[in-house]
Amino acid sequence: MAYTLVYDGGCPFCRHFALRSELLGGVPDLMIRDGRSDHELRAMLRKRGYNISNGAVLMDGEQIWHGSEAITMLCRNLTPSDPLLRVLHGVFSDTRRANLLYPGLLAARQIALGLKGLPLDPDYRGA
Length: 127
Prior knowledge:
By secondary structure, the chain is of the alpha+beta class. The protein is built from 5 helices and 4 strands; from the N terminus they run E-H-E-H-E-E-H-H-H. The protein has one domain (4-116). It has helices at 12-24, 39-47, 68-77, 83-92, 95-116, and strands at residues 4-7, 31-34, 57-60, 63-66. Strands 2-1-3-4 form a 4-stranded mixed sheet.
């Protein structure tokens, strides 16, 4: 099973988690893709009802998980060698805990993007 994690490359927290997961997560063949810079990928996901503005996306073939479900599924498959990923694995492998805490991750993303002057939605063109 080869997972693809689609994250918001404009968010430093999202980028850091994605890169660490790829390098130190122990998930075989995990591919990470910056959804903010990949317009075609974003458009395909939107057509299927998934918006990276509302959370990360994890894909395995035709199967797609979004938001807290994506992070839960990824964390359940981690065999991390990294201390931070071990903590995240312990916290976000549990569905109830992930559902409870994921809005906090989205809030941190919103603050980080705001400080960088980036819109929450990469497709937002402004008024």
